[in-house]
Design a protein that fits this description.
single chain, about 280 residues, 9-stranded mixed sheet, about 20% strand, binds adenosine-5'-triphosphate, binds 4-amino-5-hydroxymethyl-2-methylpyrimidine
């Protein structure tokens, strides 16, 4: 991106009709961080704060055509993937990402919704590893996803570090092991760049309103990369963004409510700060 251009980010993900996760969370986050958002839809989900009531995937052809429409006219400065659902959609996405040479790829390896509904078919995990991970700048697994990727059980800190090393060996330049699912007073994320570990942590908030935290966090990282931040800078902003979004919850719905995508920008403007 040159300084005169608007930063553009693309999300390749599923729709959450409830608006808290998926494409909707990604586009809201891009917008809040001052980045022009584009979207390639992989599936519609019938979903609310109570759970997932239905999953309706698009064909791989429909995904490939959307990617071509972007690639033939609009070059994203950063790209993220979320719910990809099936092996053939992953193949189409990996093929088009490689074809257009898109950089700054963030993979959120979405597998299961918080209520337990599968968002990735079991037989697609191997395709995700083989076809998509080698193109990634960053992958952001939560602990259950990291367990599926590595076949390990992740209870101890040293095992989480070993899992990060193994996922790094699958191809991404960097791995962020997210700590939302771990216990303890801190929500601690671990960034591994193939050499060293960097810890990003914040006080854990006790709330039901954590629907879409992973989507929002990886979208905020993607927005930062699109604007030309370093990886560490993008993760730092994303951590502040998700912390504010969980803290200032909206009280929407009667189940696991969405996070507050306005919160980070509101706080920045109240403090007289510029957006980073
Ligand atoms: N209760 C919490 N308090 C503070 N931070 C949290 C909390 N839960 C999650 N986070 C942070 O939110 C980000 C996303 O992590 P998480 O592990 O929840 O992702 P996820 O399980 O993929 O989310 P989802 O599947 O709902 O999209 C991480 O930075 C994590 O540390
Ligand atoms: C569409 C969609 N993508 C991702 C998630 C994971 O939070 C979800 N619940 N729904």
């Amino acid at each position: 991106m040159t300084t005169t251009e608007t930063a553009k980010a693309l999300t390749i993900a599923g729709s959450d009709s409830g608006g808290g996760a998926g494409i909707q969370a990604d586009l809201k986050t891009f917008q809040e961080l001052g980045v022009y958002g584009m979207s390639v839809l992989t599936a519609a989900t019938a979903q609310n704060t109570l759970g997932v009531q239905g999953v309706f995937p698009l064909t791989a052809e429909a995904v490939a055509r959307q990617l071509d429409s972007i690639g033939q006219d609009l070059t994203p400065d950063a790209v993220k993937t979320g719910m990809l659902f099936s092996a053939d959609i992953i193949e189409a996405a990996a093929d088009r990402i490689a074809h257009y040479g898109w950089r700054n790829l963030v993979i959120d390896p979405v597998m299961v919704a918080k209520g337990g509904a599968p968002l990735l078919k079991g037989d697609a995990v191997v395709t995700l590893i083989r076809n998509l991970l080698p193109h990634a700048l960053i992958i952001t697994p939560n602990l259950p996803e990291a367990e599926i990727l590595t076949g390990m059980k992740l209870f101890k800190a040293q095992d989480i570090r070993e899992a990060a090393r193994r996922i790094h060996a699958m191809g991404p330049d960097m791995v962020i092991m997210k700590g939302g699912h771990a216990g303890g007073d801190l929500a601690r994320d671990l960034l591994y760049d193939g050499t060293a570990f960097t810890v990003f942590e914040s006080p854990r908030i006790h709330t039901m309103a954590t629907h879409g935290t992973g989507c929002t966090y990886s979208a905020a990282i993607t927005a930062g990369l699109a604007k030309g931040l370093t990886t560490t800078g993008a993760v730092r902003v994303a951590k502040d963004f998700i912390q504010a979004a969980i803290e200032d919850s909206l009280g929407i719905g009667s189940g696991h409510g969405p996070t507050n995508h306005f919160a980070y920008r509101r706080r920045r403007s109240q403090n007289g700060g510029e957006l980073t």
